[in-house]
């Protein structure tokens, strides 16, 4: 039975209880729902939230009301997360858990395992770190990879720097090809052996480090760089 079918079945039972005005046994069904890691898709396609809410309204059992409220609250959070982050973070977390080595590494040490999983998820939800989320969602960073990333690697600053460096380099290379640097016959193109090149020197790193030289061959378009 798929997760969808499982949840749908429970939802139907709850609906019947409400129809018959008898919510005996609802608590067991709610407890069963609590054990399921709900995905946004299941939540939307089964509309189980409405069934649970109907039971909550009808039942006079304190325990049923509390558990129903807790479930609805956690599902609302799932939907809010989706709206905020454009991603089903819980599903993503479940995937990371499933596909990653985290579980194998920490099988016996529950606390460590939970802490590690929590740190992944908080990093994914970090408002200041949209790059990490985007990279994981787009598959640039695999769920296996994120499972083994250090917190430094996940940190927004780190990723921001990597992105900035890449962007700056591509801008420079772009500018080089557009406006041109200095024409020279100092370099030999490895591709066509020609000597008709244009070069630009830029400080890519700190000031006391050597400049990076970007070269473009005007004959074949090959680009390279060296320090
Ligand atoms: Zn060339």
Question: Topology, pairings included?
Answer:
Layout (H helix, E strand, L loop, with lengths): L2 H17 L6 H9 L5 H7 L1 H11 L3 H24 L3 H11 L2 H4 L4 H16 L4 H9 L4 H6 L2 H4 L1 H24 L2 E3 L12 E6 L9 E6 L5 E4 L1
Antiparallel strand pairs: 1-2, 2-3, 3-4
Helix pairs in contact: 1-2, 1-3, 1-4, 2-5, 4-5, 6-8
Bound molecules: zinc ion.
Description:
The protein has 227 residues and is of the alpha+beta class. It folds into three domains: 3-86, Conserved domain common to transcription factors TFIIS, elongin A, CRSP70 (Transcription Elongation Factor S-II, Chain A, Up-down Bundle); 92-154, no CATH class; 168-226, N-terminal domain of TfIIb (Single Sheet), CATH 2.20.25.10. It is 63% helix and 8% strand. Strands 1-2-3-4 form a four-stranded antiparallel beta sheet, with helices on one face. Helix 1 (3-19) packs parallel to helix 3 (40-46), helix 2 runs parallel beside helix 5 (62-85) and helix 6 (89-99) packs across helix 8 (110-125). The longest helix is centred in the first third of the chain and has 24 residues, at 62-85. The N and C termini lie far apart (60 Å). 19% of the residues are buried. The structure holds zinc ion. Zinc ion is lined by residues 189, 191-192, 194, 217, 219-220, 222.
């Amino acid at each position: 039975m798929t997760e969808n079918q499982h949840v749908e079945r429970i939802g139907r039972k709850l609906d019947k209880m409400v129809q018959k005005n008898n919510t005996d046994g609802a608590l067991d069904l709610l407890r069963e729902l609590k054990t399921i890691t709900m995905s946004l898709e299941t939540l939307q396609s089964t509309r189980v939230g409405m069934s649970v809410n109907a039971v909550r309204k009808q039942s006079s059992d304190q325990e049923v009301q509390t558990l129903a409220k807790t479930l609805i609250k956690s599902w609302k959070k799932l939907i809010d997360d989706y709206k905020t982050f454009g991603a089903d973070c819980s599903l993503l977390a479940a995937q990371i858990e499933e596909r990653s080595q985290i579980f194998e590494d920490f099988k016996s040490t529950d606390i460590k395992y939970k802490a590690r999983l929590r740190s992944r998820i908080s990093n994914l939800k970090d408002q200041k770190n949209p790059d990490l989320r985007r990279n994981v969602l787009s598959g640039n960073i695999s769920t296996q990879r994120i499972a083994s990333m250090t917190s430094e690697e996940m940190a927004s600053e780190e990723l921001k720097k990597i992105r900035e460096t890449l962007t700056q380099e591509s801008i420079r290379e772009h500018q080089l090809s557009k406006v041109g640097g200095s024409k020279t016959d100092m370099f030999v193109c490895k591709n066509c052996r020609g000597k008709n090149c244009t070069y630009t020197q830029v400080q890519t790193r700190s000031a006391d480090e050597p400049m990076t030289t970007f070269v473009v061959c005007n004959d074949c378009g090959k680009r390279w760089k060296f320090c």
